[in-house]
Amino acid sequence: MATLKDIAAKLNVSTSTVSKGMNGAPDISESMRQLILDTAVELGYTKRSSRQKDKKKICLFFENIDYYLDDDFGHDIILGFKQAAFRENWDVEVIPLSHGFQKKRSYDAFMLGEKIVGSMICGFAFDDPWMKDLETTKVPTVLFDNYLQENPYLGSVGTDSLEGMELAVRHLVSLGHERIAYLAGPEDSYIARIRTDAYRRSMRMHHLPVVPELIAHDYFVYESAKPYTKDFLEHGATAILCGNDLIAEGVIDECKKAGLSVPDEVSVLGYDDLPSTEKIDPPLSTIRQDRLMIGKSGYYILHALINGVPLSRNLIRPRLIVRGSTAMVKPR
Amino acid sequence: MATLKDIAAKLNVSTSTVSKGMNGAPDISESMRQLILDTAVELGYTKRSSRQKDKKKICLFFENIDYYLDDDFGHDIILGFKQAAFRENWDVEVIPLSHGFQKKRSYDAFMLGEKIVGSMICGFAFDDPWMKDLETTKVPTVLFDNYLQENPYLGSVGTDSLEGMELAVRHLVSLGHERIAYLAGPEDSYIARIRTDAYRRSMRMHHLPVVPELIAHDYFVYESAKPYTKDFLEHGATAILCGNDLIAEGVIDECKKAGLSVPDEVSVLGYDDLPSTEKIDPPLSTIRQDRLMIGKSGYYILHALINGVPLSRNLIRPRLIVRGSTAMVKPR
């Protein structure tokens, strides 16, 4: 476990500065104090928590999303959530979730039993056993990329797909593309549906036709590229927008197999900006979901819910990251 | 100005309890402390602020929305914002806004000059001079019922119109209504457009026809009822949904003038739940926008923006309030 010394070394300040920052001494600037707290969380320093006995506990649930390794999708969500919560003196637990786990105890019983006053849930699907419990729970709860109606104790956070798709389509249009295909996630996924609607909306806003042959749905995985890429190309697609980066990686490989160069002959745009996307050849242009900010926003919305404020849908802003997989359209 | 004694009297506790609560003494429970702080704000106690010299300032701007009187729309927005901000030790100023004011100084120059680190803006329209400044500002800013794309320093809060309209339409459908007219706000208003789209969506979800003759747009005022109510009734409307409570009050009076009883012959449903709606005859059924919660959510989103978290669109939950202006459909 990290010590005050480790934090001091990382920040290149004295141990006493770190100690003062951790204890909120008045001669440390607020920005230095926050940097010290953020770094403490990043390095896994936890001593401060154990000293305070009246600390309340909130938690993060994870299902279907890896988080252990640095480049796992969930890793920075946890880091951001903990950094924001640590500043305001909360204890945070991370709990992996399965269907079996949920069937053993109801959501409210679990939270009450563990004395956890609120949670953020990542990776939930409509068929999860706790979904039913969430409709009526009174435990403040934030869902990532999911949404339930009418319960004032529930909020949701995610990246704004309308703005993300608009950034994506506008980027491709600015490069002269008009036949823009969309390889979406599964039709029964809440977020995949939202993104597909957003794609249609942006295409219409740019006065481009929404061609049924240029839209397909499959899982959010590399393998989904294979059945559709060739078909898109045969229907004249000059750019292929993808539901996430994994699909995009598959699409790039399928284009290569078909003897087409990315980006010279086909532009490919991903969604998410996974840490691994820089290593793809060519490096993937994509729409960034800032996972650190998703974690932080999850905390802020949970904080509001715990204070009785019924914030329901909440979105953070995406960013367009232009790398090497998109270029000016060239007639084939 | 209120004193500690006034707060003590209102809460029926001793002055020393209030003093302890204000100073965060450890022998006062957290819920009592928060009640004391909320009451202090409600009564206008401000002494605590002036004693602390390192307090940072945020502000609320108001334009086109009254807030001075208890039953003004803006009154409780301010109260909620201040209550949430006071707990976290911010100084809050309320500043009335006009076009002239905005033309004198740019937004950023004003905020910098006044040393205000963030704001919530209520009542803005697309033609406000500061709108242009907001596209590029780096001052954390929350817009109420308005939205601008792509600037990560801007967030918006408002009540969820999709959920609100769904509550409204579902209520009328449950009473047997099928010919549900909608008298909306002006077409160039962001929020009026959103609500009209939400009306169409809910009608379709309940498999009801969206009839062009049963939709009209006008200002958010009492007088807007006159040109449309008779027409709606002639086209067979059995229920009239209104863009806000003021329009609904006008519609009720127009129905009476046409010799029709509300709710026996026509159901009328408002939107907002203004304090005055209970006094309408019959008392108005409506969709509540909780203004206290709008204020609080504005603070929480601003707090997140100030901490660098780019929350953009944020919605709080509406509630259906059933009073006397809606009833089972009766064939005329």
Overview of this structure, please?
The structure is a homodimer of 332-residue chains. Among the domains of chain A are: 1-51, 434 Repressor (Amino-terminal Domain), CATH 1.10.260; 161-289, Response regulator (Rossmann fold), CATH 3.40.50. The model of chain A has no long low-confidence stretch (mean pLDDT 91). Chain A is 41% helix and 18% strand. Chain A is globular. Chain A is α/β, with parallel strands linked by helices and 332 residues long. Chain A has helices spanning 4-11, 15-22, 30-43, 47-51, 75-87, 99-104, 107-113, 130-136, 161-174, 190-205, 226-234, 245-257, 291-306, and strands at residues 57-62, 91-96, 116-122, 141-144, 154-159, 180-184, 215-217, 239-242, 267-272, 285-288, 311-316, 319-321. Chain A binds chain B through residues 84, 149-150, 152, 157, 160, 163, 166-167, 290, 293, 296-297, 300-301, 303-304, 307-317, and chain B through 84, 149-150, 152, 157, 160, 163, 166-167, 290, 293, 296-297, 300-301, 303-304, 307-317.
